[in-house]
């Protein structure tokens, strides 16, 4: 009954798999070590410099609450920038998202051209856009708004064209069959299908714009980021921590409200 | 009058949709049923008439006009005269019933007005009257996706009527419905055909229903 087997499997994986995994591990570790040596940054430094971290964090406390009154105007400027930029970006992105959806723009040349243009727009980081516009229009909120518009259009068009590409095309056939023209087909058969997602994405882009406009301030593109940058340069750390706390609270509140609104839409 | 002369259609992928079709359909209230297996070319036949597909050879005359060369505005003018009913109803599911029905007026309404949803009083009355004809007027403000299949097909009949067509094409109008609902929908189609004298061409794949 107990016929003894002459072959005992050596491991749970074949030899070849083990070899490949071992080699991959060696390669990853060597690249890691090479990168660390070349940049002279070792993760162990974090633990060596922990006292420094505590020292700096200590400078931030206690927050300077008397500074709050200087924060409000700039905070509202940030929100205004996000509102203006989002509104304009939403309007601009409607035609562009239709042009980058392959079920609406059936002409391959136009479709590929529009996609190419929007891919280029998306590869430019928001901070670079801000640097460029500050160079063109000078320091201030206007440059920030311009940068945010382009940044937001890039995101919105990408998200929206993908939604448009997944819609049910049968109703568009019915509208065309009853003699409707292109714009009528879009407004009667396509817009109703994508409107909830479109509003939802617009709110989402508004959230992103609020956060992005903080960073843009660092290069002089208006809003509360500019104030933050100034106080960091003056090493006025208690004021910096006041700004950070207020921004944190405001961003959380806006994200919460917008999240609730979006939840109700879909 | 609709006349197919030596009409052929070969799809871009090489599939032959129609081969040398010759047929005359008189206007003035004929009720024509086309029966055939799926893949036989019934849909291609019916979709040629309003140019949702374009035949590759021959001539297709609607009211003595060869429609194969129509483009843009002329094509839309032809399509406003021809109503179409689909197997999958093709309503805009997120829109209300009345908005779906009034979309039958798009061919007669300016682009700008229709985008802003401005329709004349007569158009709105017509849409409502047509909903009444298919006994679904109480669902006026319901969203189309809240309706059952049979109700949706009735809404799509009301949409076609609102178009005031001279010809109705129905491409497998009852293929997604159960037998009692199918009979009801066919009854409405026949009733409209008789009362309004609208020539109707219907695709079916059931012989028994075609015989009725």
TrEMBL record, chain A:
GO terms for cellular component: plasma membrane. Keywords: Cell membrane, Membrane, Transmembrane, Transmembrane helix, Transport. Its main location: membrane. It is a multi-pass membrane protein. It is found in: Cell membrane. Residues 75-258 form the ABC transmembrane type-1 domain. SUPFAM superfamilies: MetI-like. The chain crosses the membrane at residues 12-34, 79-99, 127-157, 208-228, 234-257. GO terms for molecular function: ABC-type phosphonate transporter activity. Coiled coil: none annotated. Belongs to the binding-protein-dependent transport system permease family. This is Phosphonate ABC transporter permease protein phnE2. It comes from Gracilibacillus boraciitolerans JCM 21714. The lineage of its organism: Bacteria, Bacillati, Bacillota, Bacilli, Bacillales.
């Amino acid at each position: 009954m107990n016929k003894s087997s002459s072959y005992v499997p050596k491991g749970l994986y074949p030899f070849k798999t083990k070899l490949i995994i071992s080699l991959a591990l060696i390669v990853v570790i060597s690249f890691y070590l090479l990168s660390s040596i070349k940049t002279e940054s070792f993760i162990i430094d974090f633990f060596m410099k922990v006292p420094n971290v505590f020292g700096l964090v200590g400078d931030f406390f206690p927050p300077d609450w008397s500074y709050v009154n200087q924060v409000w105007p700039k905070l509202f400027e940030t929100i205004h920038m996000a509102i203006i930029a989002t509104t304009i970006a939403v309007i601009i992105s409607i035609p562009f998202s239709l042009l980058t959806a392959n079920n609406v723009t059936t002409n391959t040349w136009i479709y590929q051209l529009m996609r190419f243009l929007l891919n280029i727009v998306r590869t430019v980081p928001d901070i670079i856009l801000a640097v460029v516009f500050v160079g063109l229009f000078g320091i201030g909120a206007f440059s920030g708004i311009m940068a945010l518009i382009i940044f937001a259009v890039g995101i919105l068009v990408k998200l929206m064209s993908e939604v448009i590409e997944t819609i049910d095309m049968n109703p568009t056939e019915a509208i065309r069959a009853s003699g409707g023209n292109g714009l009528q087909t879009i407004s009667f058969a396509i817009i109703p299908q994508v409107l909830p997602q479109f509003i939802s994405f617009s709110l989402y882009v508004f959230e992103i714009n609020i956060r992005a406009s903080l960073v843009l301030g660092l290069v002089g593109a208006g809003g509360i980021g500019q104030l933050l940058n100034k106080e960091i340069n003056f090493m006025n750390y208690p004021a910096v921590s006041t700004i950070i706390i207020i921004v944190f609270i405001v961003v959380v509140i806006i994200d919460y409200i917008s999240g609730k609104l979006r939840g109700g839409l879909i | 009058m609709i006349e197919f002369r030596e009409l052929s259609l070969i799809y871009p992928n090489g599939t032959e949709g129609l081969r040398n079709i010759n047929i005359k359909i008189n206007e003035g209230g004929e009720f024509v049923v086309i029966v055939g297996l799926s893949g036989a070319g019934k849909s291609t036949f019916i979709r040629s008439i309003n140019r949702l597909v374009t035949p590759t050879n021959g001539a297709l005359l609607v009211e003595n006009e060869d429609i194969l060369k129509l483009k843009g505005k002329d094509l839309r003018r032809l399509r406003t005269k021809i109503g179409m009913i689909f197997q999958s109803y093709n309503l805009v599911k997120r829109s209300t019933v009345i908005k779906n029905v009034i979309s039958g007026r798009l061919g007669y309404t300016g682009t700008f007005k229709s985008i802003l949803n401005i329709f004349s009083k007569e158009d709105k009355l017509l849409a409502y009257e047509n909903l009444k004809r298919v006994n679904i007027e109480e669902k006026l403000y319901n969203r189309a996706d809240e309706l059952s299949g049979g109700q949706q097909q009735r809404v799509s009949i009301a949409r076609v009527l609102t178009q005031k067509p001279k010809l109705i094409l129905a491409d497998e109008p009852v293929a997604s419905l159960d037998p009692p609902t199918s009979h009801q929908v066919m009854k409405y189609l026949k009733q409209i055909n008789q009362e309004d004298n609208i020539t109707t061409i219907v695709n079916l794949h059931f012989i028994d229903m075609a015989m009725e």
